[in-house]
Amino acid sequence: MEGLVDHNIQVNECVCNKDVQNRIIMFAGNISRTNGIDILVQGFLKSKLIGVELHIYGSGDYKEELEK
Q1: What is the DSSP letter of 50?
Q2: What would the mean pLDDT of 38-47 be, rounded to a whole number?
Q3: In whole numbers, what is the pLDDT of the chain averaged over residues?
């Protein structure tokens, strides 16, 4: 399953931990240029979002470069 969301959820129904300082964007899967993970990372860095973290989980041909 990928990218599932309940579009009916209301903001006041959020079960988020309110003590968490930063919001998290998470990617889990094949870390490769074929999947565009390099574009995702570059876009995230260029966005200069405040209070947002990008978490990436998985393995693939872009993993070593990403770790650098």
Answers
A1: T
A2: 92
A3: 80
Place of tokens 């999947």: 35
Which residues are 30's β-sheet partners?
A: 59
- Rounded Cα gap, residues 64 and 32, in angstroms: 10
Which of these, 47, 35, 48, lies nearest to 56 by C-alpha position?
Answer: 35
Quickly tell me which residue has 């309110």 as its tokens: 18
Cα 64 from Cα 60, distance rounded (Å): 8
What local confidence, expressed as pLDDT, does residue 45 receive? Answer: 93
CB 60 within 8 A of CB 32: yes
Strand ranges (E), the chain: 23-30, 52-59
DSSP symbol at 4: -
